[in-house]
Amino acid sequence: MAAFEIYVQQGCVPDSLRPSLESAIRSACRTVLGPVSLPVNVAWTVIARGCGFRGGVPSTTSLVRGRIPDGCDRETRARFLRTIGRDWCDQVGCAPDEVLVSARDWSWTG
What is the pTM of this model? Predict the structure, then answer.
């Protein structure tokens, strides 16, 4: 199983893109991590305008925070994160520094 919490700044990622962004995440799970990662759950949080800042100005950064099956090697994890980041930028039209993608092992408790 894999799970993702996605945090977006209000007005930066249109609601209409959510299904295709979720589909891209599921596709990356399937192709890079394999069938062991299914099912994939996705939850969205919208940060209200004026409540998220970076460098003293309103942020446009999105955070895609995942939990994936234990034991993913470093190379596979990097390929997985790059795939999601690239897909996100392509669909949203944002710069690479406007999305932060992370994935930790499912059982990690730190």
Answer: 0.91
- The residue ranges of DSSP E strands in the chain, in sequence order, are 2-9, 40-47, 53-54, 57-58, 62-68, 99-105
Contact between 21 and 91 (Cβ < 8 Å): yes
Structural domains in the chain (count): 1
Structural domain boundaries enclosing 67: 2-105
Tell whether 94 is covered by a domain: yes
Write the pLDDT tens digit of every residue in 22-59. 999 999 999 998 876 678 999 999 999 999 999 999 99
User: Within its chain, how far is the Cα of 38 from the centroid?
Assistant: 16
Q: How high does pLDDT run on average in the chain? A: 93
Q: Is 110 a domain residue?
A: no
